[in-house]
Amino acid sequence: MIFETHAHYGDDQFNNDRHELLMSMAENGIGNIVEVGAGVNSTKDAIALSEKYDFIYSAVGIHPSETADIDESIIEWLLSLSSKKKVVAIGEIGLDYHYNEPERNIQKKWFKRQLALAKEAGLPVIIHSRDAAEDTLDIIKSDCAIENGGVIHCFSYSWEMAHIYLNMGFYLGIGGVITFKNSRKLVEVVEKAPIDRIVLETDAPYLAPGPYRGRRNCSVYLKYVIDAVAEIKGITQQEIIDITEKNAKKLYRLA
Ligand code: NI
Q1: Quick one: pLDDT band at residue 144, thresholds 50, 70, 90?
Q2: How far does the centroid of ligand 1 lie from the alpha carbon of residue 228, in Å?
Q3: Of 25, 27, 150, 233, which residue is the least packed, with the fewest Cβ within 10 Å?
């Protein structure tokens, strides 16, 4: 079945139909979902959803844009959550220079701190990196920060950059952007990346694929991403589903 490696069903956009939608996942071919924390509240949501639904796992972490007000007590709290059975990763963490908020040094500080946390927790990382390719790489390299692998979520950089991450053992998270008309750069990445290092993700409710672009996204629409990846790779949709599921289970150590 399809393994959704990155979603945010705790988002308010799902308040009216969250339960019905999640209960319809299996009949739409969606097997497991990882609900990803991006701040304090969404991390609480992730834990709660993973406790309510057996097919949902969770990741705990603070998104770079949410790092302005955190302190060491939040890190301690994340560490305590990380030992829960269904917590499979630390994330999403990283750098986001698109809006430059909060300032870069603060983002870097908490990115490093959460990488250390992942080491301590013995978990892989989910990395969010937007318009911050060089700094992200510098931090990952300089701290020898990654012991348990991870995924570059919503991969948006060049093939050259992808190649470096692949050499470090990372998976690449591929979602709705691959269906956009201006996705030439990402098509090249998917073309050249080994299929056993690609995982599927929506980032729901964001980044809906082609036909739904601009609307609320959900894991059911991964079929459009699968179509696009299957076409690029020249193999069947079912092969894409099977291989990426295996990859995701390896990444999150569920195999
Ligand atoms: Ni996300």
Answers
A1: low
A2: 21
A3: 27
Distances, alpha carbon 2 to alpha carbons 156, 220, 238, in Å: 22, 9, 9
Burial of 212 (0-12, 13-18, 19+ CB in 10 A): middle
For 184-231, the pLDDT digits (tens) are: 999 999 999 999 999 999 999 999 998 999 999 999 999 999 999 999
189 C-alpha vs ligand 1 centroid, how far in Å? 20
- Residue 10 Cα to ligand 1 midpoint, Å, equals 11
Q: Give the distance (Å) from ligand 1 centre to CA of residue 162.
A: 19
Distance 153 CA to ligand 1 centre (A): 7
Q: Which domains does the chain have, with CATH numbers?
A: 2-251 (3.20.20.140)
242 CA to middle of ligand 1, Å?
23
**Ligand 1 centre and the CA of 8: distance in Å?**
7
Residue 7 Cα, ligand 1 centroid: separation in angstroms?
Answer: 6
> What's the burial of 98, exposed, middle or buried (CB within 10 Å: 0-12/13-18/19+)?
exposed
pLDDT band at 147 (very low <50, low <70, confident <90, very high): confident
The confidence band for 14, taking pLDDT boundaries of 50, 70 and 90, is very high
